[in-house]
Specification:
By secondary structure, the chain is an alpha/beta fold. Helix content is about 30%, strand content about 15%. It has a 7-stranded mixed sheet with strand order 7-8-9-10-11-12-13. It is globular and about 55 Å long. Bound molecules: iron/sulfur cluster (SF4).
């Protein structure tokens, strides 16, 4: 399958240690001298955005390119040479080389009912197919409730996606992405519907259709459903791994950054994690924590300790201020701030025997939005 990988050759090792270079690039973003290189960048959508995929020392990571921070970044990525590699410079000094994953072949296709495949699902990182099954969210209806970092409505308003991807469309695109582009796993996220299952039902029916079409590991992502019975239903439908994303961890920050979602208390998340791990397995349940929104490193690490104790993988990523959101002018965390979290967190994960590579599917396995998996490698 290697000839099917949508990936340019790996770049030569960079002058900075890999985890340090990734941390710096993700914190500052980069200025691209050739914006057309690589896979089309993500703008808007659920979760982190305004990124572009770059391969650094063999690791594909998402690096901000459309944010205000990125426009002023000291890092410049030059136009790729004939070997597909680009030089990264800081203040004119070469600090590394990167490659751009290539545009996937499935982007050129459309569904039987005439929707471009790229409006149904997109390539994340190197080999992840990602979709937002339901592109609307009860939390996104008003400024007082919306998660301040989220742009789920932007790509919909811009006509780059459709509001509801049907199980048939998802199955068709997933099959093509595996066969044409060697995609290895799939992330299915969803806006939160006004039902008490909080999206678990549509994730289950979508996963069932994909699994009937192609053998592809799937991570489902939703808020904790009202009833833990949904975990067994999701697993039975073909969801291999589950993400329930905390985003921030202290009450004051939760209330300020995600006033709607904070109505689901931390205690409910912890109960849901404890109920989900026996269903999906240790390390197959994860959460996404955005560092840089006000939680201290100590608060994040303390929550991570509890999560790791439950067998949950805490995927800590640097916050990216997405254009057009209420937080577009909020600073991204510094590399030193991320290092203060990712260093101790990687040691905590090593002690607990939790590894991103052991996840069957999902953000923890992909790792492209954080330097965490580079830190995981033993020193
Ligand atoms: S870590 Fe998750 S959100 Fe980030 S690129 Fe990978 S799959 Fe997408």
């Amino acid at each position: 399958m290697s000839d099917l990988q949508p990936t340019a050759p790996d770049p030569r090792p960079s002058a900075l240690p890999t985890e340090q270079l990734i941390n710096e690039l993700q914190s500052f973003g980069v200025r691209l001298l050739d914006p057309s290189a690589g896979v089309q960048s993500r703008r808007g959508g659920a979760g982190p955005s305004d990124h572009k995929a770059l391969t650094v020392d063999g690791r594909t990571v998402m690096v901000p390119v459309h944010t205000a921070t990125a426009f002023d970044s000291p890092y410049v990525v030059r136009k790729p040479g004939p070997d597909g590699l680009s030089t990264v410079e800081r203040d004119g000094v070469r600090v590394g080389r990167v490659a751009f994953p290539l545009q996937p072949r499935f982007y050129k296709m459309q569904t039987f009912d005439g929707v471009p495949y790229s409006q149904i699902a997109v390539l994340h990182g190197r080999d992840v197919l990602a979709t937002t099954v339901l592109q609307t969210c009860i939390r996104y209806q008003s400024r007082t409730k919306t998660c301040q970092f989220c742009a789920i409505g932007q790509s919909l308003a811009a006509g780059r996606t459709v509001a509801r991807k049907t199980p048939e469309q998802l199955a068709e695109v997933a099959r093509a992405a595996v066969l044409l582009d060697g995609v290895k796993h799939m992330v299915m996220t969803t806006g939160t519907p006004a039902t008490s299952d909080r999206g678990a039902a549509i994730l289950a029916e979508s996963a069932f259709a994909v699994k009937a079409a192609i053998d592809l590991p799937i991570q489902g992502q939703c808020e904790p459903p009202d009833d833990d019975v949904w975990f067994g239903r999701m697993k039975a439908a073909g969801i291999d791994a589950l993400g329930m994303h905390l985003e921030s961890v202290t009450p004051a920050v939760r209330g300020r950054i995600m006033p709607g979602k904070a109505s689901v208390p931390m205690e409910r998340y912890m109960q849901a994690f404890a109920a989900a791990v026996p269903v999906f397995g240790r390390g197959q349940v994860s959460t996404y924590i955005l560092a840089g929104l006000g939680d201290t490193p100590e608060a994040i690490l303390s929550t991570c300790e509890t999560l790791v104790g439950l067998g949950v993988y805490p995927f800590v990523v640097p916050f990216v201020p997405i254009s057009g959101t209420p937080l577009e002018s909020h600073p991204a965390p510094t590399p030193a701030f991320m290092h203060a979290i990712l260093g101790p967190l990687s040691a905590m994960l090593r002690r607990a025997g939790l590894r991103s590579g052991d996840a069957k599917a999902g953000c923890a396995k992909c790792g492209a939005c954080s330097a965490l998996s580079s830190y995981e490698r033993p020193a």
